[in-house]
Amino acid sequence: MLVVAMVGPLWSLSSGIRAAWSAYDVADGHAFCIGYHGPDKPLRALSDLRGGWMWTDHSGYKIGSKWYFHAILIREDGEIYNWSHRKFRFERLGSASEVKARRFIAGPFDEICAPKERFLVDLPWF
Fold it and tell me: What is the pLDDT of residues 80-101, one digit of tens each?
């Protein structure tokens, strides 16, 4: 019974570790930031990377004709990535201009967070 009770917390914690790993992988040496696409705010602590926390605050995945993502990674060069819970990694959405050209993705993304060096390193644990 204890094993069943631990599945959710272990998934959530491993999701956070994988998100940090994936962030450094896709950042490829560029400054970056990660923020929520629902309420348009940056991560405030490393604990926000946990799977149970990286969700959009908006109802479902889509509101009306606009698409919202759970978490967005923005690189200093303008590349934008979406966190995929299914694939357990950040996936490229494109450059800021490519994403803006897609009519159904809610934006703008520059209000979510500002890329900076050592983004994850400088965050508090909680």
Answer: 998 888 888 999 988 877 776 6
